[in-house]
Predict the 3D structure of the following.
Amino acid sequence: MPTTYDLVNSRLAVAFDSVLAGTDPVLRPSERCDYQANGVMAMSKMLGKPPREVAELVVGALDFADMGTVEIAGPGFLNVSLSPQFLSNQLSTLLNNSRLGVDTAPSENVVIDYSAPNVAKEMHVGHLRSTVIGDALARMYRFKGHTVIARNHVGDWGTPFGKLIEHLLDMGEDAAIATLSIGDLDTFYREANAKFEADDSFKERSRLRVVALQTGDPETRRLWRVLVDQSVAYFSEVYAKLDVLLTPEDVVGESYYNDMLQAVVDDLQEAGLLVESDGALCVFPEGFVNRDGDPLPLIVQKRDEGFGYAATDLAAVRDRVTNVAAQEILYIVGAPQSQHLEMVYAVARQAGWLSDSIRCEHVPFGNVLGKDHKMFKSREGTTVKLVSLLDEAIERADSQLRERDTGLTPEARRELATSIARAAVKYADLSTERQRDYVFELDRMLAFEGDTGPYLQYAYARIESIFRKLEVPVALDATTFTLAEPQAWQLALGIIEFPVAFDSALRDLVPHRLCTYLFDLAQRFTAFYDACPVLSASGDLQRERLALCRLTGDTLKLGLSVLGIDAPEKM
């Protein structure tokens, strides 16, 4: 269904067109887009007339009586006021719309590259933002009607696997699997590194094992697969604890692209893009220079004929366009990788793999900081494991629930604590403007007051409690909204903004806009609930207030769900 804002803007566009038809009918399309985007001020500049005079012409041509009124303010701003009848009709339509006004789009194949941990290494706090933001965007794209192809580009190839496989053999396969299966990947990795630095014979064996891995030795490949499978199983446990939708089937690591690397070189060679530089094969995409102003190379094949990250990333773009038929490709990767990815995209476009019709975009994000505003570390100065962080959040949420004496069984309380902890961690991340850093403070994040995930969960649960208290269910389908109280009016305006907030957040890949909207809606509901008693009202007035509660609750639940956050009915 068209949003209220679509309807208003379409009427304004017709009025602008009517004014222009009487002054300059040969206006270029690009200029038409400009005035529709920037309004009276842009049109005033184009026509050489004072803004207020232009505003008067627009209002005179505007057909708006069935929707409300438009007044001119200041130098020429248009203030739109919706009529109660129009707003009532919009709310009545939403009561019967499970999508709450969010239309589906023509389906596209959207590849989203996110999370990307390394095999035989535990997931730590540095993986949190990519995982949470990527999962939220994947859910939002799916809700909009697109086909999402998740790509968990794990680090599962390269020279470290020589020492990891040799360490596995030294431990004994069963003992190694036992260590890895309990998620103690970091210990395994550290032991392999220490042995590599201290033992020359181990170092030589490791180097030979890398050669065996790269040349396809069956036993070496089998042992490598043991490491990969155990790591992927561990990743899946972390994703389940965080309620992230990534599955083992979404793991498409560096090794997947191995057999495509020579084709990348051949394509670039055929396109005349490869240049030999210091024995390496490179591409010098236009516009990229170093600090001295010299052209910056993207190294495709090293002088030892090995391949690095650039070749793998180019192969991934080529595969995603050619074989997956991606129409959008999003990389949820930290900001420091910005230049590298932009160079990869530039080379992919020069090679003809990436057409201008395909949106290929880096979605960067800031860092998670500790209370000292430095990179988040444990008390021992080590990187915080993601599982440890989540477990601590769950324990604290469980402790809070015990203090609140919810009357839940220990099992039910633990389940609710897990939901609250997930909401706290995810919402703190998603509600922060994506490219900014934020401080990780569990006490603040778990609070039931303020701009937090638990606060929004509690707002939804409070609404559900209203309906549980009804002695007799009330049918809401035929509700008429008078919106006599200012708090009811403001809540109604907030409810109809959901499709605009959702589409804006998805369009610009900024989930924080949807979080900001949901927090604002919850605050509007609190003001409404304090000023407009629901259960003590009767007749049509109670039905109207219940309908506003229902729409608010449904909007909070849907908005949280597309961000990957659960909305419990009781808290």
